[in-house]
């Protein structure tokens, strides 16, 4: 492990996080020169609401 200096912000798309790491590969979208690295936090990520299996198969999602 080699820590790097924070300086650039990259916007990426991803499918899943696990223990604060990308679970699968992610796709680079663009550089974000308008963002400061310190302004990028985990609490900004959308969190999916859990759904029961029964609600999923019956289509009664609300």
Describe the 3D structure:
This protein has 62 residues and is mainly beta. It has one domain (10-58). It is built from one helix and four strands. The strands form two sheets. Strands 1-4 form a two-stranded antiparallel ribbon.
Give the count of helical stretches: 1
Distance between the termini: 44 Å
Q: What's the order of the H and E elements?
A: EEEEH
CA radius of gyration is 16 Å
| Strands in their spatial order, largest beta sheet | 1-4
Approximate shape? elongated
The unreliable regions are: none
Mean pLDDT: 86
How many β-strand runs? 4
What is the total domain count?
A: 1
- Beta-strand proportion: 15-25%
Query: Helicity range of the residues?
Result: under 10%
Largest sheet: 2 strands, antiparallel
Task: Label the structural class.
Answer: mainly beta
Characteristics of this structure?
62 residues; two-stranded antiparallel sheet; 21% strand; two-stranded antiparallel ribbon; 10% helix; 1 helix; elongated; mainly beta
SSE layout:
Layout: E1 10-13, E2 17-18, E3 21-22, E4 27-31, H1 53-58
Antiparallel strand pairs: 1-4, 2-3
Outline of the structure:
This protein has 62 residues and is mostly beta strands.
């Amino acid at each position: 492990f080699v820590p790097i200096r924070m300086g650039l912000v990259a916007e990426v798309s991803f499918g899943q996080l696990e223990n604060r790491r990308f679970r699968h590969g992610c796709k680079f979208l663009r550089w974000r020169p308008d963002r400061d690295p310190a302004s990028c936090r985990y609490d900004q990520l959308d969190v999916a609401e859990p759904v029961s299996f029964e609600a999923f198969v019956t289509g009664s999602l609300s």
